[in-house]
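Recap from last week: sequence in, structure out.
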Amino acid sequence: MPLPEKALIAQIRRMAKSDRRRPADRSVRPTGTTIFTGIGDDCAVLRLLPGKESLITTDLTLEGIHFRRDWHPPESVGHRCLARGLSDIAAMGGEPVAAFLSLALPRDLPQAWVGRFARSLISLGERFGVTLAGGDTAESPNGILADIIVVGTAPRGKSVLRSGARPGDRIFVSGELGGSAAAVVQMRTKPKKKVKPRDYPRHFYPEPRVELGRILREKGLASAMIDTSDGISTDLAHLCEESGVGAEVEAVLIPRASVGKPAREVDLDLALHGGEDYELLFTARPGKRVPSHIAGVALTHIGHITRSRLILVRNLKGIAYQLDPKGWEHFRK
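Predicted structure tokens:
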């Protein structure tokens, strides 16, 4: 079995930096292309053109891991496939430009499924001005695999990284949390009851916060940012690790999603550890005024950054405990 996902990425990152034939982050290659930020953020940041940074991200969507055909209609799979990459661009404060899709498909997959998947993916791209510019196809021995690459841009030196948080910064999150994970729980625990996408829209058709991320970058409000693809406990840990800081979060302030019919608020554990909400988690300097809503999306102040490397959460009874990253991680033992 490979190492747990976080350890595996760290090992590969060390190997990439130890190869002396390749320039390190923020170095200039012989052609003049600058790799400004590499492994460790939502996107790689390349400086290819004067005054611009190119943002590049890639995400795998695997049948049986990220979706199930008996749970997810093909429109949802296509939408979610591209939404993941768009959310990474949003987390850098960037503007998406183009996407590249590689598909590995089993021989017995109906063409109608593929068409519905593709139309939904392309439709979401059109909403954000993103062109499907290329890709590849192959036959899969079992299951569907979709690899999406999304390219975006940001003004030179303005991409919002995970590494910009400082002690005293306030922590904010957009929207509500736990809604996507609640849908998965429902589908697992009640497999015979059909889960309706309209009751769990944040799971089946998540909305990438591209406009919000761009405004946060333009107004200089976010000192560090990440999207909540793996769960806030895990993603906050990523942000703090890259910034070399800790955090304190108030459980009572966590905005929990209301799901189902009749609507009910999700448990705190789902809000803290459930992933695939694709909201934005960001920090702001103490002197910055962050409004309660931007681009129609609610923003909630949930805590602050500390000098300690610990991440603490104060529960509903006011007792503080260490918040371990229990969100999604591949290869976890």
